[in-house]
Design brief:
By secondary structure, the chain is of the alpha+beta class. Helices cover 25% and strands 29% of the residues. The strands form four sheets. Strands 10, 11, 14, 15, 16, 18 and 19 form a seven-stranded antiparallel sheet that branches. A six-stranded antiparallel sheet has the order 1-2-5-6-9-7. Strands 4-3-8 form a three-stranded antiparallel sheet.
Amino acid sequence: MSGDAEHENRTDENRTDETSADRPAANGPGTDGAGAPDTAAAAAPRRRLLVAAALAPVFAGMGTMVALAEPAKADVTGVPGAKEEREGGGGPAHLTPVPTTAGHWKEVADVLGRPGSLVRGLFYHTRFARDDLKVISYGVEVAPELALGSHMAFVRYSDDSVLVMGDLNVTEDELQKVIDALADHGIAVTALHKHLLAHSPDVWWTHIHGHGDDPVPLARGLRAAMDRTSSPPARPTGRPPRLDLDIEAIEAVMGVKGENDRGIYKSVFARREPIIDGHMVLPPGLGATSAFNFQPLGGGRAALNGDFAMVADEVQDVLTTLRRGGISLVEVHNHGLTEEPRLFFTHLWAVDDAVKIAEALRPAVDLTNVVPVGPERDYV
């Protein structure tokens, strides 16, 4: 998951999904540039085709959020595509996300001590901005929305179980206490790394994964971990400051409409293929995004931070292309343990003219199998 990868220039309660007509065309792998599938995409394994078929009825109406009853207990044999999966290999069916409403997560919000946002009706997302930290990297004071913040997302599944995934931003002094609190509550640590190069004070990002029948104990575990940090209370959202960047030029280069997240400009792309975590299909936009954050520094210049989500065959070409464009690489790592296809992430840093940075990023984006995500969506 991207570090502090969530953003809005409106209140969390007013999120809506973009329609396919609003979404810019993409020239990533998987198409010939005119929308026709290429040979590799057409030869996708039968298992992925079954997963895609299972997802189709779930995501067909995700553009609108409607009031829904609490999902009833569901036998996994009733999941679309489950029968075909078993007949093909005899293994268990993949669980698919089910829609919820904000009301389903009220107890979670109460435990975490702050409101979250319901993303396309399929996952409930909460963030903790680290406004208490003053982090300097290469002379730049890093804004919380650029690279500092914790977040977590809850998903209800077709067997009525709940998955939580997230990324906790902690100082080095807080790190071991946070890890211990997570372990005490049965929440796994799936990755531990940094999103920034030379910086002070040292901060770390701890990716987490929890699964259970009830989201409230999972929320209590996360709250216990966050209570080991000095993360401040939630702050009110207001109108974001004007961005001193050539937004029109950046969007023309990147091929996606970005968003002003409290003074940080963000461009987002999501993986096209279904991502399976263990036996669970992840909702689009959860744990499989490439996100690029631009912090204005004046005169059209910006500091860049963010990350690429890549499969193994894409990694070397992306890294080489980024370096040729003058983008610094921070780390290459995984965020999860069992996702399929296996995802690799590289975190980035650059300080330059923002349009020039975008021009260095776009060729690398085009090497990956992603689709642009408009500003009406959230991601983690």
